[in-house]
Write a structure and sequence with these properties.
Helix 6 links the parallel strand 7 and strand 8. The protein has a single domain, classed as P-loop containing nucleotide triphosphate hydrolases (Rossmann fold). The protein is built from seven helices and ten strands. The chain is an alpha/beta fold. The structure holds adenosine-5'-triphosphate and magnesium ion (MG).
């Protein structure tokens, strides 16, 4: 199985308002292979979202290397980085941002349109995914009329639409009831495994974590094996 993402020796500190430095990540090594799902647990504030943002190329680490399909991203130009991000990275945030001036369907189709897909195909693919997350009947809604869980599902449809190589999901089903969460989790796992993608997910849901291929815990800046 080929390696899609590799993190080596990632460190990150934040500057506190009083000028002191707060060490969040102190040497993270992680590798994700085709079809693999890895879950990360850890206390609030331990740095899980920070780690996902770095791996998803949204935030620069202080030190360390990030490789996508064996290629070190530090050598990429801003344009190449942007193109890698749009082709390879899907992200579901804790509080996902939807474009409020666009409909649910347009939100889901947006990454495909940006990639240059023909509108007819992009909208049809977006409809297929909205159907899978149970939102097809809300496709013409503006996001502000959606419930919290519906927003989350719309964001998941948008993240899955371009079939990204690596999906980062930060508590993707946190605001959903148990049954909806379970069906969305199954959809995400299926998509990743059947399409040979990979997923790094932060979750406090033990059932979901147990379905991952590996469970890790972030503690004191390091990744430990298991859900401790
Ligand atoms: N830009 C920043 N500047 C300073 N401190 C920050 C910044 N971003 C995050 N922090 C701090 O870094 C720590 C790690 O934040 P992070 O969001 O990665 O935690 P988390 O593990 O995702 O927590 P949660 O489970 O609550 O979502 C937190 O204590 C947070 O206050
Ligand atoms: Mg977080």
């Amino acid at each position: 199985m080929s390696e899609l993402l590799r993190l080596e020796g990632i460190t990150k500190s934040y500057r506190m308002p009083d000028g002191s430095s707060l060490d969040i990540l102190s040497g993270i090594d992680l590798s994700l292979r085709e079809g693999e799902v890895v879950s990360i647990a850890g206390r609030s504030g331990s740095g899980k979202s920070t780690l996902l943002s770095i791996a998803a190329l949204l935030l620069a680490p202080d030190e360390g290397r990030i490789l996508y399909e064996g290629r070190d991203v530090s050598g990429l130009s801003a344009k190449e980085m942007q193109s890698l991000r749009s082709r390879s990275v899907g992200f579901v945030f804790q509080s996902s941002l939807l474009l409020e001036d666009f409909t649910v369907l347009e939100n889901a189709a947006m990454p495909l349109l940006i990639q240059g897909m023909k509108p007819r195909e992009a909208y049809s693919e977006a409809e297929r995914l909205l159907d899978k997350v149970g939102l097809l009947d809300r496709r013409d809604y503006r996001p502000r009329l959606l419930s919290g869980g519906e927003r989350q599902r719309a964001a998941i449809a948008r993240a899955l639409a371009p079939s990204p190589l690596v999906i980062f999901a930060d508590e993707p089903t946190g605001s959903l009831d148990e049954r909806t969460a379970a069906s969305i989790e199954a959809l995400m796992l299926d998509t990743v495994r059947s399409e040979g993608r990979c997923m790094l997910t932060v979750t406090h849901n033990r059932d979901f974590a147990a379905k991952a291929d590996r469970m890790l815990t972030l503690s004191e800046g390091r990744l430990l094996d298991g859900n401790v």
